[in-house]
Amino acid sequence: MDMQTSLLDRLFASGLLIETGVDGLYGRSGKFEDVIAAFERLIETFGGDDGAEAIRFPPGMNRAHFEGSGYMKSFPQLAGTVHSFCGCELDHMNLLQCMAEGEDWTKDQQATDIVLTPAACYPLYPTIAKRGPLPAGGGLFDLQSYCFRHEPSKDPARMQLFRMREYVRMGTPAEVQDFRQLWMERGQKLIETVGLPVHVDVANDPFFGRAGKMLANNQRDQNLKFELLIPVTSTANPTACLSFNYHQDHFGSTWGLKTADGGTAHTACVGFGLERIALALFAHHGLDTNDWPAPVRKALWGA
Ligand code: AMP
Ligand code: ZN
Predict the structure, then answer these.
(1) Suppose 164 and one of 40, 84, 120, 285 were both cysteines; which one would form an S-S bond, judging by CB atoms 3.0 to 4.6 Å apart?
(2) Per-residue model confidence as pLDDT tens for the chain (303 residues)
C-alpha cells in the first residue's frame, strides 16, 4: 500500500476524516476542526494587527465573475459548475425515468449563475473594483472559503473540496511585492512554530494543454508564485501547503481596479491550505493531538 492510501486509511480509521464514497470529498471530525480553528488563530497572531478587512464569501461565485477571471484559460480541468433542473413536468417525468433505469439523468441539467469557487480570492477582485479606486496605501483583505477543484485522488492532501485562508493585498507594485515578501518570511516562521519542516520553492501549477506550457514557463521565469512545501506522505515529493502569488496587474486590468492615483492596481495573495496544514500536523506529530509535542500544543492551544 502506498503512503498516501495508508495515511488516508489511518485518518478514516481514527475518525478524523469521514469517508463519503468519493475520493477527495470527506467529512471532518470535531478534532480535525479543532486543529484548523487553532491554526487559524495562530495565523491571526501573525497577521491580525495589519488591519485587513475580513470578508467571507460562500463557496460558490458569480459565474460572470468566474468567466471574466480567465480561470478557464488556465485550469479548465479543475473547474466545477453548478447545474440545476430547469424543465417542465414532462422533463421531470423523463428525468425520474432516466434515474430509475440507471441512465444519465444529468445531461439535461442547465448551468446556473453559480460556479464553485476555485480559490478564495477570486470573488474579491470584482467586488473591490466595484467600490471605485483603492484608498491611498491600497487595500488588504482577510478571506476564508471552501474551494472546489476537480482532482479526485487517494492522496488525502489532494481534496476536491477544501478550505483556503487568504490575505490579499492590492496597491502599487512595491506595496504588493513587499506584502508577499513579508508573508514568505512569516509563513516559514509560522510553520516552524508548529514543529514542521519547510522549504520554499517556485511553483509549478498544472496549466492545461500546450498553451499551458507557456503559462507555466512564464509563471516560473517571472517568479510569480512560490510555495511553502511540507512533507506529508512523501519526503521526496513534499506538499504545497502555503502559496505566495503575485498576479502583477492581471486582476487589476481585468476588473478595472485602480490605485488612489489612477494607476492600474497590482495584486498579490498568500493562501494557506488549511486541510493540508492539519494533515501535515497529524502526519508528523501523530493522530492524537494529546500526544503532540508540548511546544506545538502551546503554539496552537496555549497549553
Ligand atoms: P493554489 O491556488 O493552487 O496555490 O492553492 C492555494 C493553497 O490551497 C495551496 O497552497 C494548497 O495548500 C491548497 N490546495 C490547493 N489544492 C488543494 C487540494 N486539491 N486539496 C487541498 N488543498 C489544496
Ligand atoms: Zn488568492
Answers:
(1) 120
(2) 588 789 999 999 999 999 999 999 999 999 999 999 999 999 999 999 999 999 999 999 999 999 999 999 999 999 999 999 999 999 999 999 999 999 999 999 999 999 999 999 999 999 999 999 999 999 999 999 999 999 999 999 999 999 999 999 999 999 999 999 999 999 999 999 999 999 999 998 889 998 898 889 888 888 899 999 999 999 999 999 999 999 999 999 999 999 999 999 999 999 999 999 999 999 999 999 999 999 999 999 997
Nearest atom in ligand 1 to 277's CA: 12
Q: Which atom of ligand 1 is closest in space to residue 151's alpha carbon?
A: 19
- In short, whether 149's Cβ falls inside 6 Å of ligand 1 is yes
Does the beta carbon of 241 sit less than 6 angstroms from any atom of ligand 1? yes
Taking the model in full, what pTM does it have? 0.96
Sign of the CA dihedral with 216 first, then 249, 77, and 27 last: positive
User: Does 297 contact ligand 1 (Cβ within 6 A)?
Assistant: no
How many domains is the chain partitioned into structurally?
Answer: 2
Which residues constitute the domain of residue 104? 83-115
Same domain? 87 vs 221: no
Q: Tell me the CA–centroid distance for residue 241 and ligand 1, in Å.
A: 7
> Whose C-alpha lies nearest to ligand 1, atom 14?
273
Ligand number, closest to the Cα atom of 150: 1
> Nearest bound ligand to CA 164?
1
Same domain? 191 vs 167: yes
How far, in Å, is the centroid of ligand 2 from the Cα of 109?
30
Of all atoms in ligand 1, which is nearest to the CA of residue 160? 19
Residues 168 and 74 in one domain: yes
